[in-house]
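Researcher: Quick sanity check before group meeting.
Model: Go ahead. Protein one:
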Amino acid sequence: MPEITIHLSEEKATQLEELAARLQVRPTDLLRVSVEELLGREDKEFRAAVEYVTKKNAELYRRLA
């Protein structure tokens, strides 16, 4: 699995560690899950936009066909 290195300020690193401790997970696991969720959300939003445009323009597409 590819690795990615990020640089955080001391303040942000501390916040990450505190949040991970509250959730009882490792900071790296919290980051990985957060990135996966973010990437999945973008895909869902894109699909929703495509469905909206397709439905909205269905009659136009039918006429042009």
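Researcher: Fine. The other one?
Model: Protein two, sequence then structure:
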Amino acid sequence: MNNIVLQKCEEFISEILDFFDSDSVRKLEEMETTLKEITDRFILSLMTAYLASLDQAIVKDKAGRRKKGIVIEQRNVKREIYTIFGLLIFYRTYFRDKRNQEYVYLVDQAVGLESYKRVSGTVAVELVEHAQESSYGESSRHVTGEAISRQTVMNRVHSLKNLKIEPAEKRSVNVLHVDADEDHVPLQNGHNAVVPLICIYEGVEYNGKRGRCINPHYISSYGKSTEELWLEAADWIYSSYEIDDIERIYIHGDGGLWIKEGLNWLPKAKMVLDKYHLWKSIRSATRKQPEDGKALYSAVLNDDRKAFNRIGKQLIKNAASDAEIEKIKECQKYLRNNWKAITIYREEACGGSCTEGHVSHVLSSRLSSRPMGWSKKGLKQMAELRAYCYSGGRVRLEHLQNNESKYSISKKLAKEAANAFNRTTAEKRGNVTILNRGKVIPMFRCLNGLRNGNGVF
């Protein structure tokens, strides 16, 4: 085995030297791409050699396996897995565990390779993080150059779990804002699904005309009940803020029943009907009578019920069809049901809202702005992933790993596997001419660092 490792090292050095041994000047881009390809191949060959050495050490450990009731079932079983260096191909031994009545690849368990997975954990994290911004196919192209299928990317997204941000130290604020709205997302069965989104933030800071929410935290999912969503919001607020210091929580939204449910879960909360939905309702009812529409808008904002009723009667009187009358009555009912949530604008400094912007930015841009159909599982996972990432979370390996049993390798076996590399001595590597000349040039530093184990390419 040590001869194989030595051979790989010599081939790598030779390939590097041959690349630079040219009459023409190497361009920077050429050096970047070619040297990366050479280095990636070299690293993959060392990984293959190490896995073979580790598997051989396990096979030789007959006494240790006998104590655990593990015997050899089949040798040289091929495994392929895509890593950050490219496709890793290696062969390992298949064992039978008599005690647990199962068949296992011990070397896979020893190095943390999950069964039936086609990509390494590091690559899987990159795929998932990229998939929350673009399609599964684009994620595969960006990370692996289409070396794996869209199905593999989707499977990794579906396997996500425990996407939860732990609050930092509790903060003290006087006012909290909670924006609540939903996106309508097409499913694969032809129906649309409602995906709710809650954003908790401390206000808006402006840079010129551009505003930015302060410390936003997003909550979203598909299939969760209204109570579960608001319980999660309440948990975040109680965990992240000094409750006694909060004077008011403003819940901004379109007045839907699921949004008003937040009043039952959040302390010191008041409902605020966002002006986008307020004006949308009035404009829909007064499209053919725009001047009266503006007067109606002013009346409700100023808490003038007399003017509101008078203008409403005038709108109905001047309506040209029964359909228009129906829209006016629906608008009147909507405004009456949310009257306090509208007049609060003149009573308290409740600020505006960003409900539509949140939905567009966090959900719609990935879930519904393109022609696609989602499975229920995929929709749930992607909504939660988007909310997690836009809250500042990063996908980590533990979000993707299964709780498979791991085979413990003793220090003795680990040392035995490493001996193939340790026995590749400096004397055996001493036949590289450029290292024996003693002339310190950039290539000498590079290769000398490789020989002594402290070089970085």
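Researcher: One line on it for the slide.
Model: The radius of gyration is 32 Å.
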